[in-house]
């Protein structure tokens, strides 16, 4: 049995990693801002963080925030891991962080570099976006009478449970460096994804394609966030919709 700390262990991905590791018989510590006994804000660090990492054999770092603070949080975690002599740090990142000049992506890439230069044993896994993030985006866009979609942009969503399974597998293995990316099973245009979402939810919206400006949009349009050669995911977007909204999503 291995003792493993999962940061962000109550989040969308982290809680599934925790469940998977516990199902495999490992002792898992859950770290988040409100999860006792390891309620820690990684952006602040402190004694609670040292207690959380003491004696663990691996850390799976899932905690993240698009609102900022990821680099500071990672620096605190790395410092605590060094003090405790933790032999393995596993980090979940995003396909395209080195290509798409988006603020959040830049922060994820900066965290990768911190980990690579940390002196710790490390493993980094990059994946494409989760199905639920695509749904969150489309749900927000359908609040308008016309569903405005970024022209020329595709996505490759992946099932979060598959990513959790892979992270759990990596956590109990030795440090592996940058492992192969994980992409969803299909590269889909946004009109295709939006059509599936509308059918699943019973909503009706006319679609309009909006051409945006900027380097980030150009990188998305060029597919910098996709990994078609690593389309290893099994669960499709329709599978996810069917599970969330009902069997009508399959039609």
From TrEMBL:
- InterPro entries reported in the protein's UniProt record: ComplexI_NDUFA9_subunit (IPR051207), NAD(P)-bd_dom (IPR016040), NAD(P)-bd_dom_sf (IPR036291)
Outline the extent of the NAD(P)-binding domain.
Answer: 8-132
Q: What is this protein called?
A: SDR family oxidoreductase
Query: Lineage of the native species?
Result: Bacteria, Bacillati, Actinomycetota, Actinomycetes, Kitasatosporales
């Amino acid at each position: 049995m291995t003792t493993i700390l999962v940061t962000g262990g109550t989040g969308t991905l982290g809680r599934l990693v925790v469940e998977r590791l516990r199902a495999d018989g490992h002792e898992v510590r859950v770290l988040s801002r409100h999860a006792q006994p390891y309620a820690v804000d990684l952006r602040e660090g402190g004694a609670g963080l040292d207690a959380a990492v003491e004696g663990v054999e691996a850390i799976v770092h899932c905690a993240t925030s698009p609102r900022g603070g990821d680099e500071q949080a990672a620096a605190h975690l790395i410092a605590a891991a060094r003090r405790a002599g933790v032999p393995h740090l596993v980090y979940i990142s995003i396909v395209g962080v080195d290509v798409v000049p988006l603020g959040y992506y830049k922060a994820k890439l900066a965290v990768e570099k911190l980990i690579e230069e940390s002196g710790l044993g490390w493993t980094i896994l990059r994946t494409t976006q989760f199905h639920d993030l695509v749904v969150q985006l489309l749900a927000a866009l359908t609040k308008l009478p016309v569903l405005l979609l970024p022209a020329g942009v595709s996505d490759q969503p992946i099932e979060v449970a598959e990513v959790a399974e892979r992270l759990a597998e990596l956590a109990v293995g030795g440090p592996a460096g940058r492992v192969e990316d994980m992409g969803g099973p299909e590269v889909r245009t946004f009109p295709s994804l939006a059509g599936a979402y509308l059918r699943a939810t019973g909503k009706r919206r006319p679609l309009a394609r909006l051409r945006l400006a900027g380097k980030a949009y150009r990188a998305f349009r060029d597919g910098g966030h996709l990994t078609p050669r690593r389309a290893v995911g099994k669960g499709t977007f329709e599978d996810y919709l069917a599970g969330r909204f009902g069997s009508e999503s399959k039609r």
